[in-house]
Amino acid sequence: MKSNYKSIKVLIADDSIFIQRVLTDLLNTDDEIDVIGVAKNGQDAIDKVKELKPDVVTMDVEMPKVNGIEALKVIMDESPVPVIMLSSLTYEGAHSTLTALEYGAVDFVQKPMGVFDLNSKNNKNEIINKVKIAHKAKIIKKDSLTVNRPSPFKIEEYTRRSLHTTIVGIGISTGGPRALQYILPQIPGNIPASFLVVQHMPPNFTKSLADRLNTICQVKVKEAEDGELVKPGYVYIAPGDYHLKIRETGAEYVIQLGKEDAVSGHRPSVDVLFNSLSELKLTNNIIAAVLTGMGSDGTKGALNLKSKKGSYIIAQDEESSVVYGMPKSVAKAGVVDEIVSLDKIMNVIINRVGV
């Protein structure tokens, strides 16, 4: 029997009566979750949030009168609450979902195509777990993050100190798209460093994310491709459902993508990326940053990096993390050199590039 004292109160916003009913039944199977209402369109969702004061909202994107993104904007401005978007796994769906994440949605789940999709064990667990994570997540409004572009990197100082480019590995999950949108535009276009990013996301979403980030950054941001050379001034984002590694071929770095089993519950996995960085011999200047996200992906890889390479490890602090899981785990492992807020992470990285 449920205890109202412990319940996570959820509002479902969807114009489909079928989805409303199935989601309600699914979420109500968990003893910590209580669906307290449904909204049939975006305006109804805005009104119900004020009336019912839910702990979490699930929000469809396409709804009549006011769509999900417009409703999200109003809710985040007037009655902020953690919102999970229901998204189709298409490039167009990814674009809409990333827009919603920019406006403050905490996370997203795949929009079910039918009752079998919703009631499959994996999908059911994913939806329930994400509601629980969202309940504990911090709400960060869109206008609270402002980007300060640094001055161009002083190449002549760097080349006197190191013969090889710096490699920066970034691991990130829940809250990641907005965090990346904040820190990556701070990278100077002429920086002698290459960035490799593992963001927990499905296919199509990582391509859309890379394309969006590329329009606002001074460096080139792209989805990583198997076999391509790693260049300074580039940010490579691991494709959804592929592990990302870097290997040495002669005097060059080459990207290697693979579909090996999930590691730490993820593919791509931060641990896989960090482990591959620990094997590099061409550079001693490797930086690893673990940012907002649920779980512990990246901790084992960071331990390996520190033991083999003496690399510099950075973790995002609790205050600026949407979910303080991954950075907390790596910090507790005792291998972190600095714990810093999101607004200082890129400054730390840029300064370390010249070491």
UniProtKB/TrEMBL annotation:
The modification 4-aspartylphosphate is found at D60. Residues 163-355 form the CheB-type methylesterase domain. GO terms for biological process: chemotaxis. Phosphorylated by CheA. Phosphorylation of the N-terminal regulatory domain activates the methylesterase activity. The active site is at S173, H200, D297. It catalyses: L-glutaminyl-[protein] + H2O = L-glutamyl-[protein] + NH4(+); [protein]-L-glutamate 5-O-methyl ester + H2O = L-glutamyl-[protein] + methanol + H(+). One of its GO terms (molecular function) is protein-glutamate methylesterase activity. It is found in: Cytoplasm. Keywords: Chemotaxis, Cytoplasm, Hydrolase, Phosphoprotein. GO terms for cellular component: cytoplasm. Residues 9-126 form the Response regulatory domain. PROSITE patterns: CHEB, RESPONSE_REGULATORY. InterPro entries: CheB-like, CheB_C, CheY-like_superfamily, Sig_transdc_resp-reg_Me-estase, Sig_transdc_resp-reg_receiver. Its EC number is 3.1.1.61, 3.5.1.44. Gene3D superfamilies: 3.40.50.2300, Methylesterase CheB, C-terminal domain. Contains a C-terminal catalytic domain, and an N-terminal region which modulates catalytic activity. NCBIfam families: PRK00742.1 (NF001965), PRK12555.1 (NF009206). Belongs to the CheB family. May play the central regulatory role in sporulation. It may be an element of the effector pathway responsible for the activation of sporulation genes in response to nutritional stress. Spo0A may act in concert with spo0H (a sigma factor) to control the expression of some genes that are critical to the sporulation process. This is Protein-glutamate methylesterase/protein-glutamine glutaminase.
